[in-house]
Amino acid sequence: MTVNDDSFTNWKNREEIAESMIPIIGKLHRERDVTVLLHSRSLVNKSVVSILKTHRFARQIAGEELSVTETLPFLQALTTLDLGPSQIDIAMLAETYRSDDRGLSVAEFTAEAVAGATGDDKIERREPRDVVLYGFGRIGRLVARLLIEKAGSGNGLRLRAVVVRQGGEQDIVKRASLLRRDSIHGQFQGTITVDEANSKIIANGNEIKVIYAGDPSEVDYTAYGIKDAILIDNTGKWRDREGLSKHLRPGIDKVVLTAPGKGDVPNIVHGVNHDTIKPDEQILSCASCTTNAIVPPLKAMADEYGVLRGHVETVHSFTNDQNLLDNYHNSDRRGRSAPLNMVITETGAASAVAKALPDLQAKITGSSIRVPVPDVSIAILNLQLARETSREEVLDYLRNVSLTSPLMRQIDFTSAPDAVSNDFIGSRHASIVDAGATKVEGDNAILYLWYDNEFGYSCQVIRVVQHVSGVEYPTYPAPVV
Fold it and tell me: From 3.40.50.12710, 3.30.70.1650, 2.102.10.10, 3.40.50.720, which CATH number describes the 129-259 domain?
């Protein structure tokens, strides 16, 4: 047998193992509301090849490839336990088991590591929480995709309605088509049908009522059987408490804004300050995509090294706010053609840091350049640290933060030497540290942070909504603080 034959046989064996994992992962998700993760990446509804690629990705950040032969025993051990709703990272189980010297079996170690999700300690499955989307643009449709994806267990969040202004003929058909096909993020994973007579879009069995209204005051959500819902405002039309309060209509309990809030509206970056949300707070903001990209790594660096001052320069993809061709615009420069120019503009991300990290005393400044790409941006975070360090130390630290810390869902890490913006379309992290571009000299560190300003941000929005709705389930093994 040749070396090539050996490689092919090994691949086929791993394919077979990954194939055997799929029904286990699906059953845990549907029957117990358990999401199986691998280095914080969900394996639910993933293909054989996707599972194998996710295992291989560990090589970039952990230094060596993680094999399905290592993780399968932990997955099998989970099926023997009386698990409650939770997220369980089998990569973390495998790696912490590797360093454990007590001689425990895989089954014994797994039972101990996820004990908080079993027996009397487990969380009971909750009734679904109604969600309404107000606006159905770029972020609205991606949030809809995520809500539909996460409805597979029948618990958690349930997208009940979308509120939009009435368009022309076949309005609902066109909106369904935009949900079905996306030029950047690809095809919707599943089936979509339209019930025009009842003004509904049915996506993977989820009946979504399309409500036409020109103003929040026109809608009584209880008329559609919606109660205690979380409304996600994707329009950005109202940014302060007074304006967003218009959404607090019958059937709506809380309002979440997908843009920076003004005045006393809390700006929340999940992973950093979501635990400061007061239980009775009805209005909050998820800040901006750039704020979500820079605040988690800024917090990580401040916690370890201290930060005296900093500047963030974002090279940002163009957005719907800009013109395709030169035309009148209220803002300076944004009237010039977005696909043909680099456009210098302002960013509120730097000033928003103070809301998310009130204990950070460092002055952070910022500016932005819009560039002719439709998605994925990069933030260049230039920091003066409180102590000197080295490039190797910073990279080792950030790699570990991305793998095992409470920020592992916010911060990703790549050492790929040829990485470019397209590689990060669909990333579910708030930002990705580019190891190859990182520069450190003495007390100065420059981090290059990629982020999918559409999809990665939408994932952060969903995490905030899960938290305020009470369906954000704990992760095991617990992240290292």
Answer: 3.40.50.720
